[in-house]
Design goal:
single chain, six-stranded antiparallel sheet, six-stranded mixed sheet, alpha+beta
């Protein structure tokens, strides 16, 4: 379960410009544990929120700083080992520029007009591509993640992640989809079979009506033209007659004038041979006018036969009745005819189709059972390993007598529309339901975690689970956003030690906290402060070390009134966390960060991969 990681993998730079209240911020980070502290509402989550935008969180136009057309968030990662290989593969898959010396640059440009852009290594990409590239880089645990442990469905994906069952879970989802599709078609056919004779009568009625009428494509339009012609026969004869008179039959008609003009030009050809071409043109015009006149004779032969008109109107009425039943136009009637014929044939052959589908469903279900059984076996084995690994973490979190069990039980029959031959239900995730059982004290019985764990216990169980999961996850950056909810004192110190240990496992950790017991454990310390500048509220970030860090820890310990005893207590905390040299001025901070400009409050929070 435990995979090696590369210390070279890290988030090295983060730049934010014109986002929310941010003007321009550049942060330079190094490996280890970096803590962010500050008063409530000061904007401590700024780094987290900027990262989430880069990791694919959807952004609104309102995220752009007032007065700016665009906002920008940019991060630079240095990658090595397995993470570099994974990212390289995804870059090739999405046809994006490769890494240069292991460096990956992600960039989001937020537009006030809503036309946001994403870039990977300088190349434009879609939001989905940005997510795919960034997914292996950051594990995020939000401030309400411990509450998610209370959800009934939370334990199963955590166990699958621990066991590395992604491929089998995907195979199970595909097998379940295939079986479900077959089962749904079979169920629909069974329903139709129960009402087969009535439905066949209905289908036959509609088909007989359409087939007796035998409509042809475009027939309604042709009939409408004939109907209009018959209704206006007298007017048409008059119109055609007038036109013919003007062309060939009237005094000074067009054809006579053309012939006269041709004769005149013909006489002039002797003097100007170039007129021959014009004579030819007039010849063509004479022929054309003559053709038009002959056609008008045919069009003038309009018989206003009332019996023919009645026949056409009856046919149109019949077509319109059918069209009204089947979609409003003749094309819809013809499509309905095809569909009715198909359904009629299917019902006539329903018994054979039911038999074929039942055989297919048996095959699909058997294939799903094979994957589900493989998953169940792996889950039961891994459940014991996960429970042992989490139990091993609990004593160091102040829960020496606590015990956790990962229970893997069959799904209830009501949980799914599919069942195995033995009656056990199947879902898209397999045949199991997983639940965390918990006992806070030695000798007490196990009960569902959601029923017996307090808020502080949930926070610690979450951290224990995260520590175990992260041990098998090569993701280089872990972000913890106020995971110390509901704890303090010695428990807070235990959580700080655990975060420090996670950071010591060749992993970069960013932690937002309100507890000095955790803040003192950071290799680097950022303080976020809200100030008013130029009539606008902004958040500033400053890196603190030595006495400035002691002052911040003193504020966290003592509130507004900071005494000498409080400051001495802060120095002692730093000394215990980092060794006696931590209390001496001038000690370097391994993960110092540079805040070049005031930093403003971040956009709204969003969840990210890795949250329990």
């Amino acid at each position: 379960m435990y995979r090696s990681r590369d210390s070279a993998c890290m988030l090295s730079h983060l730049t934010v410009r014109n986002v929310a209240l941010i003007d321009h911020v550049e942060l330079s980070l190094r490996p280890g544990l970096t803590v962010l502290t500050g008063e409530t509402g000061a904007g401590k989550s700024i780094v987290v929120e900027a990262l989430l935008l880069l990791l694919g969180q959807r952004a609104s136009a309102e995220a752009v700083r007032a007065g700016s057309a665009e906002g920008t968030v940019e991060a630079q990662f240095h990658l090595g080992g397995e993470t570099r290989r994974r990212v390289d593969d995804r870059l090739r898959e999405h046809e994006l520029p490769p890494l240069e010396d292991g460096t990956l640059v992600l960039r989001r440009v937020l537009s006030r007009e809503g036309r946001h852009k994403q870039q990977v290594n300088g190349a434009l990409c879609t939001l989905a591509q940005l997510k795919a590239i960034a997914e292996p880089l950051v594990d995020f645990t939000g401030q309400h993640a411990h509450q998610q442990l209370l959800r009934p469905a939370a334990a199963l994906p955590l166990l699958d992640g621990f066991a590395g069952l992604d491929d089998d879970v995907a195979a199970m989802a595909a097998a379940f989809h295939a079986a479900s599709t077959t089962a749904a078609e079979l169920s629909e056919l069974h329903t139709k079979e129960a009402d087969k004779e009535r439905r066949l009568d209905v289908l036959r009625f509609y088909l007989d009506e359409i087939e007796a009428l035998d409509p042809q494509a475009g027939e309604d339009l042709s009939l409408e033209r004939d109907r209009r012609r018959l209704l206006n026969a007298g007017k048409l004869r008059e119109t055609v007659g007038d036109a013919r008179t003007l062309l060939v039959d009237g005094e000074h008609d067009v054809l006579t004038r053309l012939q006269q003009a041709r004769a005149a030009l013909t006489r002039g050809v002797r003097d100007d041979p170039a007129l021959e071409a014009l004579v030819s043109s007039l010849d063509e015009a004479v022929v054309l006018i003559d053709d038009v006149a002959r056609s008008l004779v045919r069009h003038a032969d309009v018989d206003d036969d009332p019996r023919l008109l009645l026949t056409i109107e009856d046919r149109l009425d019949a077509l319109k009745r059918v069209m009204k039943k089947h979609g409003g136009d003749l094309d819809a009637v013809l499509r309905a005819k095809t569909a009715l014929q198909s359904e009629h044939a299917l019902l006539k052959d329903a018994a054979a189709r039911v038999a074929a589908l039942e055989l297919q469903l048996a095959k699909d279900t058997a294939a799903a059972v094979v994957v589900a059984d493989r998953l169940s076996l792996a889950r039961r084995h891994s459940a014991l390993e996960l429970a042992r690994a989490v139990d091993a973490e609990l004593p160091s979190l102040g829960m020496a007598g606590a015990h956790i069990q990962v229970a893997v039980e069959p799904l209830s029959s009501s949980s799914s529309m599919l069942q195995r031959p033995d009656g056990v239900a199947l879902s898209r995730s397999g045949a199991d339901r997983v639940e965390f059982l918990f006992s806070a004290n030695a000798g007490e019985g196990l009960a569902p975690l959601a029923k017996v764990a307090s808020g502080g216990e949930l926070s610690r169980v979450l951290l224990a689970v995260k520590r175990v999961l992260l041990a098998g996850d090569p993701v280089p950056v872990s972000v913890f956003d106020e995971v110390d909810a509901g704890v303090g004192g010695a428990v807070g110190e235990a959580i700080g030690i655990k975060l420090q240990a996670i950071a010591g496992e060749q992993r970069q950790v960013l932690c937002i906290t309100h507890l000095p017991q955790i803040a003192c454990r950071g290799d680097g310390h950022l303080v976020v402060e809200k100030v008013v500048s130029g009539g606008r509220a902004i958040s500033q970030v400053r890196a603190v070390a030595d006495e400035a860090r002691v002052d911040e820890l003193g504020r966290m310990l003592g509130g507004q009134e900071i005494t000498a005893a409080t400051l001495e207590h802060a120095r002692e905390m730093l000394a215990r966390a980092h060794g006696s040299s931590a209390s001496r001025p001038g000690r370097p901070t391994p993960s110092a960060l540079l805040a070049s400009q005031p930093l403003a409050a971040a956009p709204k929070k969003a969840k990210r991969r890795g949250a329990a």
